[in-house]
């Protein structure tokens, strides 16, 4: 992966299998000036799209269809690009514990946001990343 043009998040790759939630996030973030790339929520497509889009941030759901959850997908992305910024959204409090216990994520730019998500809170977190 090449060096990012700027530190500020401008392009977000959005991975969410519930279409209504995906549309809310996409519309909200586009109105705030972000360019949104939507990826299908399966492992191979996530990795392929990450390389194609080279987003500044990956916003993904923890619960994904198939054999991989959001943390596993994040690990695959970070193996390819250790500087990737990832925000996982989930209703599962245990995801924070899972993240903290996995030494691979130490020093990486990855955060977990627990649902229900307030859009203002989401915007503030993205701005800080």
Short account of what is shown:
The chain has helices at 19-31, 43-53, 70-80, 94-101, 119-128; strands spanning 11-15, 35-38, 57-61, 85-90, 109-114. The protein is α/β, with parallel strands linked by helices and 129 residues long.
Give the SSE map.
Elements: E1 11-15, H1 19-31, E2 35-38, H2 43-53, E3 57-61, H3 70-80, E4 85-90, H4 94-101, E5 109-114, H5 119-128
Parallel strand pairs: 1-2, 1-3, 3-4, 4-5
Strand order of the largest sheet: 2-1-3-4-5
* CATH class membership: Alpha Beta
Following the backbone from N to C, one meets helices and strands in this order, namely EHEHEHEHEH
Total count of strands: 5
- The radius of gyration over CA amounts to 13 Å
Distance between the termini: 19 Å
Describe the protein in words:
- By secondary structure, the chain is α/β, with parallel strands linked by helices.
- The protein has a single domain, classed as Response regulator (Rossmann fold), CATH 3.40.50.
- Helices cover 41% and strands 20% of the residues.
- The protein is built from 5 helices and 5 strands; from the N terminus they run βαβαβαβαβα.
- The protein has helices spanning 19-31, 43-53, 70-80, 94-101, 119-128, and strands at 11-15, 35-38, 57-61, 85-90, 109-114.
- The chain has a 5-stranded parallel sheet with strand order 2-1-3-4-5, with helices on both faces.
- Helix 3 (70-80) links the parallel strand 3 (57-61) and strand 4 (85-90).
- The longest helix is centred in the first third of the chain and has 13 residues, at 19-31.
- It is globular, with a radius of gyration of 13 Å.
- The model is unreliable at 1-5 (pLDDT under 50).
- It comes from Nitrososphaera gargensis (strain Ga9.2).
- Residues 11-129 form the Response regulatory domain.
- Keywords: Phosphoprotein.
- This is Putative signal transduction response regulator, receiver domain protein.
- Pfam families: Response_reg.
């Amino acid at each position: 992966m090449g060096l990012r043009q700027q530190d500020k998040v401008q392009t977000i790759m959005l991975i969410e299998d519930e279409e209504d939630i995906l549309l809310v996030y996409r519309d909200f973030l586009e109105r705030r000036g972000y360019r949104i790339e939507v990826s299908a929520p399966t492992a191979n497509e996530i990795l392929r799209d990450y390389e194609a889009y080279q987003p500044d941030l990956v916003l993904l759901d923890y619960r994904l269809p198939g054999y991989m959850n959001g943390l596993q997908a994040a690990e695959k992305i970070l193996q390819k690009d250790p500087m990737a910024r990832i925000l996982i959204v989930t209703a599962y409090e245990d995801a924070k514990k899972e993240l903290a216990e996995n030494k691979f994520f130490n020093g990486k730019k990855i955060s977990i946001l627990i649902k229900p998500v307030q859009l203002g809170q989401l915007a503030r977190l993205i701005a800080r990343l």
